[in-house]
Write a structure and sequence with these properties.
By secondary structure, this protein is mainly alpha-helical. The chain contains twelve helices and no strands. Helix 5 runs antiparallel to helix 8 and helix 9 packs antiparallel against helix 11. It starts with a helix and ends with a helix.
């Protein structure tokens, strides 16, 4: 039987964990912005603390140093893919083309949410330790699996015409990442929704089997 003291302890621990999550999020978001602007090598812990609005000592409570912060920023994006993409695919139902469409849209929306951090995966990965780079490679393969599976299901069903399903999947991933990498350009004329719709239409038009196009007119137009 739980007591009032147990309940109080549980509530205190929950509040402490929630506070830690907020502070960690604050530090990671600030690090992504700052490292994108200046490069990880030029960023000091003092500058990071100022950007995040916290003390240097608080950063060291969560991270062992700048390298750990950089790794955590990149891993944070990959964990978001791992959480959001399978959920979007599952919600799309059984149709393989719509599952593929949902996966691509989910990738784009994660990229938009973590735009500064996504840029760092390209610009700063070489600054990581060998162990850190291997961790990132493993997570990238793991988190791209839902998209690769969706493409393979489409090919098996005859709805997509391609001899290179892996290449199709990674082309779609690059299109998603381009929203971050070239946001300075695309963001001037396109909303995220318009970008997703236009890129999805261009990609599917090239590979969807002609006899199935009328079923997916809403995705192709």
């Amino acid at each position: 039987m739980s007591t009032d003291a147990d309940t109080t302890t549980d509530a205190t621990e929950a509040a402490r964990a929630a506070g830690a999550a907020v502070r960690s999020r604050q530090i990671l978001d600030a690090a992504a912005r700052l490292m994108e602007r200046s490069g990880s090598e030029s960023v000091s812990m003092q500058a990071l603390a100022a950007e995040a609005g916290v003390s240097v000592g608080l950063i060291y409570r969560y991270f062992g140093g700048k390298d750990e912060v950089l790794l955590a920023v990149i891993v944070d994006v990959l964990h978001a893919f791992a959480a959001d993409v399978p959920e979007a695919v599952a919600a799309a139902g059984d149709d393989p083309v719509r599952r593929l469409s949902a996966a691509f849209e989910a990738y784009c929306r994660v990229i938009d949410r973590y735009r500064h951090a996504a840029v760092l995966t390209y610009r700063e990965s070489n600054a990581l330790s060998g162990e850190g780079r291997e961790q990132i490679k493993h997570l990238e393969i793991e988190t791209s699996q839902p998209l690769r599976t969706a493409v393979q299901e489409d090919v098996t069903s005859g709805r997509l015409l391609t001899d290179e399903p892996d290449l199709v999947a990674y082309n779609l991933l690059l299109l998603a990442h381009s929203w971050a990498l070239k946001h300075w350009y695309f963001g001037r004329t396109l909303t995220l929704d318009r970008y997703i719709a236009a890129q999805r239409s261009l990609a599917l038009r090239a590979i969807i089997a002609p006899q199935f196009r009328d079923e997916y007119r809403d995705l192709l137009d």
